[in-house]
């Protein structure tokens, strides 16, 4: 039974070696990102900045969220040919949410409105990502006190989602539930 133990040790060592090699490759890729070399460098940098933008504000607060998403957006817009505008849409929506949490409601709503416009331009009317971006924007409008505009947007969204996705789809039911809730609360 001793050989089996040795075999396991060699497999374990192989996995450790593979992990080290993978880390070395990752570090080499990150090094290329910082020097601007290598294909896909923008995507790797964008992914790293995305992770920072998602997690840092949860620790350091809304102002840090605005800073992180703003930097991510600058980079994504500069590299748009390689990264695509979908990152810009997502970034604008998230930055808007953090701006609102940081107390700058007007800037937050503007960022979220731009996210809807960019999604509409990029994806086209009726696309699921456009509907989801509008859903988040409608909630932000409602929470900011723009209740009539929020209700109109959510009502149109519920109708469009019902036609395109079906009445049983989660987005349709969530939109209709928001409308019921908003109607009940006045």
Descriptive account of the structure:
There is one protein chain. The protein has 9 helices and no strands. By secondary structure, it is an all-alpha fold. Mean pLDDT is 80; it is low at 6-24 and 30-35. This is Tetratricopeptide repeat protein. It comes from Catellatospora bangladeshensis.
State the end-to-end distance.
Answer: 75 Å
Portion of residues in beta strands equals under 5%
From the spread of the alpha carbons, the general shape counts as globular
What ranges have pLDDT less than 50 throughout 5 or more consecutive residues? 6-24, 30-35
Helix- and strand-based class?
mainly alpha
pLDDT average, as an integer? 80
Give the % helix: over 70%
Radius of gyration: 22 Å
The topology string of helices and strands comes to HHHHHHHHH
Report the total helices: 9
Total number of strands: 0
Tell me about the largest β-sheet.
none
Short description:
By secondary structure, the protein is an all-alpha fold. 87% of the residues lie in helices and 0% in strands.
Q: Which keywords apply here?
A:
9 helices; globular; 186 residues; TPR-like_helical_dom_sf; mainly alpha; Tetratricopeptide repeat protein
């Amino acid at each position: 039974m001793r050989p089996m133990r040795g075999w396991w040790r060699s497999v374990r060592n192989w996995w450790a070696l593979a992990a080290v090699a993978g880390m070395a490759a990752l570090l080499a890729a990150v090094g290329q990102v910082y020097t601007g070399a290598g294909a896909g460098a923008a995507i790797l940098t964008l992914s790293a900045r995305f992770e920072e933008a998602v997690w840092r504000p949860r620790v350091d607060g809304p102002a840090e969220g605005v800073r992180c998403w703003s930097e991510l957006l600058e980079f994504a817009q500069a590299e748009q040919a390689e990264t695509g505008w979908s990152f810009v849409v997502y970034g604008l929506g998230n930055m808007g949410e953090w701006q609102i949490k940081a107390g700058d409601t007007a800037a937050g709503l503007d960022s979220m409105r731009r996210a809807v416009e960019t999604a509409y331009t990029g994806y086209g009317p009726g696309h699921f990502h456009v509907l989801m971006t509008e859903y988040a924007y409608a909630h932000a409008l409602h929470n900011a006190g723009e209740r009539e505009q929020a209700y109109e947007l959510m009502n149109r969204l519920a109708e469009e989602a019902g036609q395109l996705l079906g009445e049983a789809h989660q987005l349709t039911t969530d939109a209709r539930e928001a409308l019921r809730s908003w109607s009940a609360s006045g």
